[in-house]
Backbone:
């Protein structure tokens, strides 16, 4: 039987390639989209978790995943410092725009480095902190990925060039930071910021401090920094639904491609099937041959799909800086889609072939 299956697969290379490509396409779709969503989510969580300030104070509507607004007055800094339990306060202005490589989105923070760095345990790896309004500092990850070091240049806000004067670690918040005054000038938002980070005194419950702030300054929003970025699936509406629809679409594509290919091959091999039945081949044998042929093509499609997905993920990361993280759960889901899609897609053609009348099959032209 193994020789018969291999011969059937190799005898019609175009049909085999189309079937393999259909299964591979489903695998690539699942792995790329789930890997991208997981990678971006985990990257945002890692950077958010490196914020050592316990509270984030802002105005309603100031911070979204893909946009931010500088609508908070820095005059709140002095009022927040006077509240019981507050140790340090740092205003931050954030700009979110299209990614510098033409894909995704990029973040830039304007901070007072002398106050921001000690609060969040950051240190300069090389160079120095930004001082002039045309200077920026980047984290070690961006320095490595983009090949930038202190002394290089970075284009921001369109065509405006900024000098990279330092590299910091660990990654925290936006990968590019400039002085608060420089960002206010670039966004034409004097005396404004997007949010204010609040460090609580040792031994003080941040929730109690948040209650005091809300009582003293009502109408604003106070977040625990650990809750700011929980998951990209929760931050982007209906992303989970989109991924599930994508998985279903991949399953349908794989099933229909295999079904069409196997149905076509049954028509082409009607006489061959008639000969097998005339020689005593049972219905189970005919179904088994066709199902195994479909599963073999699905297995090859799975392998090619995984290889293509990993290669494309690496290329996109190199080209656009987007992060992909694959996990075994989605890999197993993609494998199940490919194999089950192949088996289910071949079932109807297999049963049809098994039910052919030997006499009619032998006389088929």
Residues:
């Amino acid at each position: 039987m193994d020789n018969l299956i291999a011969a059937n697969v190799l005898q019609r290379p175009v049909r085999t390639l189309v079937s393999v490509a259909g299964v591979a396409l489903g695998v690539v779709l699942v792995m790329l989209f789930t890997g991208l969503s997981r990678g971006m989510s985990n990257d945002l969580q890692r950077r958010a978790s490196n914020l050592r300030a316990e509270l984030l104070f802002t105005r309603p509507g100031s911070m979204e995943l893909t946009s931010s607004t500088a609508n908070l007055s820095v005059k709140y800094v002095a009022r927040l410092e006077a509240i019981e339990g507050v140790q340090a306060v740092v205003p931050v202005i954030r700009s979110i725009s299209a990614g510098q490589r033409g894909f995704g989105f990029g973040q830039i923070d304007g901070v007072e480095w002398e106050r921001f760095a000690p609060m969040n345990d950051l240190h300069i790896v090389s160079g120095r902190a930004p001082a002039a309004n045309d200077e920026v500092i980047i984290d070690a990850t961006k320095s490595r990925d983009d090949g930038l070091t202190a002394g290089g240049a970075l284009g921001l806000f369109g065509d405006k060039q900024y000098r990279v004067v330092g590299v910091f670690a660990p990654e925290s918040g936006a990968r590019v930071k400039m002085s608060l005054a420089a960002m206010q000038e670039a966004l034409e938002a004097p005396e404004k910021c997007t949010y204010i980070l609040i460090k609580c005194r040792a031994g003080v419950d941040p929730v109690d401090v948040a209650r005091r702030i809300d009582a003293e300054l009502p109408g604003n929003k106070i977040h625990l920094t650990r809750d700011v970025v929980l998951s990209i699936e929760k931050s982007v509406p209906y992303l989970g639904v989109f991924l599930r629809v994508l998985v279903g679409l991949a399953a349908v594509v794989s099933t229909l491609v295999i079904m069409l290919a196997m149905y076509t091959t049954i028509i082409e091999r009607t006489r061959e099937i008639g000969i097998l039945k005339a020689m005593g081949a049972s219905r189970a044998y005919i179904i088994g041959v066709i199902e195994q042929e479909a599963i073999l093509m699905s297995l090859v499609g799975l392998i090619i799909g995984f290889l293509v997905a990993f290669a494309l993920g690496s290329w996109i990361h190199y080209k656009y800086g987007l992060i992909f993280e694959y996990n075994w759960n989605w890999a197993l889901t993609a494998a199940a889609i490919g194999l089950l899609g192949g088996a289910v897609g071949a079932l109807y053609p297999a049963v049809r072939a098994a039910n052919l009348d030997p006499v009619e099959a032998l006389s088929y032209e």
